[in-house]
Design brief:
Blueprint (H helix, E strand, L loop, with lengths): L3 H23 L2 E6 L12 E5 L4 E7 L9 H5 L7 H14 L4 E6 L7 H4 L2 E3 L16 E5 L1 H6 L1 H6 L5 H10 E5 L13 H14 L11 H17 L3 E2 L1 H8 L23 H15 L3 E6 L6 H12 L4 E6 L9 H4 L2 H15 L1 H4 L10 H14 L5 E6 L2 H7 L13 H9 L8 E7 L11 E4 L5 H10 L8 H15 L3 H10 L10 H8 L24 E3 L12 E3 L28 E4 L10 H14 L8 H11 L38 E6 L6 E2 L6 E2 L11 E5 L4 E4 L17
Parallel strand pairs: 3-4, 4-7, 9-12, 9-13, 10-11, 11-12
Antiparallel strand pairs: 1-2, 1-8, 2-3, 5-6, 6-7, 14-15, 16-17, 17-20, 18-19, 20-21
Helix pairs in contact: 1-8, 1-9, 3-7, 8-9, 11-12, 14-16, 17-18, 19-20, 20-21, 20-22
Length: 740
């Protein structure tokens, strides 16, 4: 006995079932049950589909290896298990438990030619057409004519035990689909059924599109067919929970974990600024549009975004995304991607109104088109609630991802500009506001909308911050005024640096009432934030920083000893790392301390004077124009071959630090050459073992000189690497180094 037709029939059933499983993945169907008889004599057991709305459809599938017309014998004998009286009896029993169920008899047979069949079948009218049994699969649809069946000599005899009421109910509930297309059994050379599946997977599910750009539609289609086959051989039922792992699709739009970049415990509310921002959002919402919040680094843009979200949230739907949460964020590199920004907003909109997101197509695509459709759907479903979308920290995007200036093979690209350009394509209907917070820059050029600049803090704001941080002496008004004056003067109204100064202060001490004032007084005046760490951000894991950045003139414990996070993991060779200047050391090495060399000074006899001189020297070269210059600028410009810009006094918020060299990793693990010669002093932390990255020798410091074990790194067009054989005071400075 040849079983090939039987197996081909099962393969055909699996392919059609896979099309129904697309409905499950879309959320249109809650469950699909395969090859499961619900009672003895059940003739519609091949596929049962239960929709999200509660409707129910049962399918019987019959496949024929050769093309042939539907015959009388098919419906009058049990050769294909389609005897008409038994079909009606099965329908009747099932309707008792599930009234309103739709039944379909699906056949690859072509339209009948025999007069006995044409006499009892009638084409489905356009007004009464339920559509194809499987979405996207064409067929010819017919129904039994109840009057013709009851009055035809041959069929009335076959239905002698069937009531007239059942025959008429069968007419209402049963549709016969003929001329069903076939399959090829090769997904890479698809037949009509496979082609429908391959068309629906990318167009409706989003395979091959962000965030599933790397997921092949062919692989997803095969996984759906395999899921149908597994259900037929196993439990029978397929739900979204069991189907999702098989598909391999990202079904949360690629969203990253939500995070709050600020610490609510120390956040200061500025009613006037917050009121202006909320009022602007309300004004724009009438017609819908964009609102831009700009400001210099550390001016509390993120605080304002969180506060306006909290203020509007009771009446508004708020979806927010912060492009930067800190260096410790494990999703830092993905958080700045355009598709992740859009995906995070989509996920939050879905949480607010699931029904509105279920109808967008492609269902799981994180694109501007999907976001536009989602906003329209949410507005339609919740017309009484405006929507506020917040994207904060766009200036971090290019710093994390890097910028391409163009070459013979790569097109010039600015990731931050690309993100803004994508966001401006989102359709913002009435009562939808897009709030973008960023440092000023050319990346915002395509954004058209109202702009608000975050102003520096007032003295009253600093008082509130200092009080919340426990810095103010509670019993001495004069000392309180002095501490506030110090913080306000040195921070120049910058929230970032003011918070840093408060945290650096020891707080009130009954035995030493001037402790806070003295500690704050040791800190340098803001040229822009010199601590180079977002102190107002939510604290990390509490561990001590892996290393410290020092000005060359400072000894241990002086005012220039500024803590910063140093990542000492060894990166992949040949890859440029942009976020810290310490990443090129092996993970097993102790972290180093980076100390910029002052060209006019080789000794460090006066720490306070040295700090002021070094700060003034750095300020003249624009070092403090960007609060993030220490971490991001040097390596980024070195990668772009624009090292000479590091020594220029002209700059913007993206490249300004001559304090550290542009260091890259080459295949042999050594720094790559730079177009400008730089000097960098490298020394291990005090009381820690060290070993040279060039010789792999290790030793332990026994003495504690001011800069123990200091080595000089020259990175330039003529020099590359670490001079491990000479101490700093032995190697004379070359004329080309004076440019520092």
């Amino acid at each position: 006995m040849d079983l090939r037709p039987t197996h081909r029939g099962y393969a055909y059933q699996d392919a059609l079932t896979a099309i129904y499983l697309v409905d499950v993945a879309l959320g249109e169907a809650d469950e699909v049950v395969v090859d499961t008889k619900l009672f003895d004599g059940d003739r519609f057991d091949d596929v049962t589909r239960r929709s999200r709305e509660g409707s129910r459809k049962r399918i019987q599938i019959k496949h024929s290896a050769e093309e042939r017309a539907l015959t009388v014998e098919t419906l009058t004998t049990e050769r294909r298990s389609l005897r008409v009286d038994l079909l009606f009896a099965s329908l009747d029993q099932d309707l008792r438990d599930y009234p309103g169920t739709e039944y379909r008899l699906v056949l690859t047979d072509v339209e009948p030619e025999a007069s006995d069949l044409t006499a009892v079948f009638t084409p489905v009218s356009l007004s009464d057409d339920p559509g194809p049994a499987f979405s996207g699969v064409p067929s010819t649809r017919m129904k039994f004519d109840p009057d013709a069946l009851l009055n035809h000599p041959r069929w009335s005899k076959k239905l002698a035990t069937t009531s007239e009421d059942l025959v008429r109910r069968a007419y209402a509930q049963l549709v016969v689909d003929v001329n069903m297309p076939g399959i090829s059994l090769d997904i890479h050379s698809p037949g009509p059924i496979e082609a429908v599946l391959l068309r629906r997977v990318p167009a409706e599910l989003g395979a091959g599109r962000p965030p599933n750009r790397d997921v092949s539609p062919t692989e997803v289609a095969l996984s759906l067919i395999e899921a149908a086959k597994a259900a037929r051989s196993g439990p029978g039922a397929v739900t979204l929970a069991s189907l999702t792992p098989r598909m391999g699709l990202v079904v949360d739009f690629g969203a990253v974990q939500e995070g709050n970049p600020v610490d609510p415990a120390v956040a200061i509310i500025r009613p006037d600024v917050l009121s202006d921002l909320a009022e602007a959002a309300n004004d724009i919402s009438d017609e819908g549009g964009a609102l831009l919040l700009t400001g210099e680094p550390g001016v509390d843009k993120s605080w304002l975004c969180e506060q306006v979200a909290n203020q509007l949230r009771p009446e508004w739907i708020v979806a927010r995304h912060h492009c930067w949460l800190g260096l410790e964020d494990t999703e830092r590199d993905s958080r700045v991607l355009t598709e992740v920004v859009i995906g995070s907003l989509l996920q939050q909109l879905e949480a607010a109104c699931p029904a509105a997101l279920s109808s967008i197509r492609p269902r799981y695509a994180a694109t501007s088109e999907a976001l536009s459709a989602a906003l329209k759907g949410v507005r339609s479903a919740l017309a009484d609630r405006p929507i506020l979308l917040i994207v904060d920290g766009l200036d971090h995007v290019t710093r994390v991802l890097g910028q391409v200036t163009g070459s013979a093979f790569r097109v010039s690209a600015d990731p931050a500009r690309a993100l803004v350009d994508e966001l401006v394509t989102v359709d913002l209907p009435a009562n939808v506001v897009l709030l973008i917070a960023s440092q000023p820059g050319d990346h915002l050029a395509s954004l058209d909308g109202r702009s608000i600049t975050a102003s520096p803090w007032t003295r009253e704001d600093v008082v509130a911050l200092a009080d919340r941080n426990g810095v103010l002496p509670s019993d001495r008004h004069e000392q309180t005024e002095t501490v506030v004056d110090l913080i306000h003067t040195r921070s120049r109204g910058n929230a970032l640096y003011a918070t840093y100064l408060c945290r650096e202060a020891e707080g009130p001490d009954p035995l030493r009432p001037v402790a806070s004032r003295a500690r704050v007084g040791e800190r340098p005046r803001l040229l822009l934030p010199i601590p180079l760490r977002r102190a107002h951000r939510r604290p990390g894991d509490g561990r001590e920083p892996a290393g410290r950045l020092r000005l060359r003139s400072n000894g241990p414990g002086t005012a220039g000893d500024l803590p910063t996070r140093a990542n000492s993991r060894r990166p992949d060779r040949g890859r440029t790392h942009r976020l810290t200047t310490t990443r090129h050391w092996r993970s097993q090495d102790p972290p180093r301390e980076f100390q910029p060399l002052h060209p006019q000074r080789d000794s460090c006899h006066d720490a306070d004077s040295g700090s002021q001189n070094a700060a003034a020297w750095l300020a003249r070269r624009g070092f403090f124009t960007d609060a993030w210059a220490f971490r991001h600028v040097p390596e980024l410009l070195a990668e772009l071959g624009r090292d000479d810009e590091l020594s220029s006094s002209k700059g913007s918020s993206c490249w300004l630090s001559p304090a550290c060299p542009g260091v890259r990793i080459t295949a042999n693990g050594r720094p790559a050459a730079s177009t400008t010669t730089w000097i960098l002093l490298v020394s291990p932390p005090l009381d820690r073992p060290r070993h040279s990255p060039s010789t792999a020798r290790s030793s332990t410091q026994s003495a504690q000189p001011l800069f123990p074990g200091t080595r000089r790194v020259l990175v330039g067009p003529d020099t590359c690497g670490i001079d491990a054989d000479h101490e700093l005071d032995v190697v004379p400075q070359r004329p080309s180094e004076s440019r520092l």
